[in-house]
Amino acid sequence: MIDKNVVKNLVEEWLQDKEYFLVSIEISPDDRIVVEIDHADGVWIEDCVALSKYIEDHLNRDEEDYELEVGSAGLGQPFKVPQQYINFIGKEVEVLDADGKKVKGILKAVEGNDFTVGVEEKVKIEGKKRPVKQEVDHVYQMDKVKYTKYIISFN
């Protein structure tokens, strides 16, 4: 089986001096390698091809046969690395917290493992008969939520 660290090192070599970042590497028992990269402005197919060729040039098919797929982290897919959170600051996201509660709001900030989402909620204000819609900040930890993903809007 192909060593994941070997592939990771190859990807990181290729990524040096580029604005891309590694999202994930998966290697199945039958040596199917799936590499996901991302970029703040999206991923170009030409760069996926270049990374794929770079990996193939450094792995020996005579030693081990493998299938290689290089692509981008799909829009609308859950975030896997902190850089994805940073790239979507100011955008609408959906969070499913550890308790199974789903909220939608604007990703406002990322600090270390924590991120803040501004959510429109009805809030009871003293002196008012009816609750008023107001933005309430919710702070989550990346490793404590079930998922966070960008909400694609066509408006």
TrEMBL record:
Chief location: cytoplasm
Domain of life: Bacteria
Cellular localization per UniProt: Cytoplasm
GO annotations of cellular component type: cytosol
Residue span, Ribosome maturation factor RimP N-terminal domain: 10-75
Pfam family, one: RimP_N
UniProt entry keywords in alphabetical sequence: Cytoplasm, Ribosome biogenesis
Transmembrane segments: none
BP term (GO), one: translation
Function statement: Required for maturation of 30S ribosomal subunits.
Xref: NCBIfam families: PRK02001.1
Family: Belongs to the RimP family.
PANTHER family: RIBOSOME MATURATION FACTOR RIMP (PTHR33867)
The protein's name: Ribosome maturation factor RimP
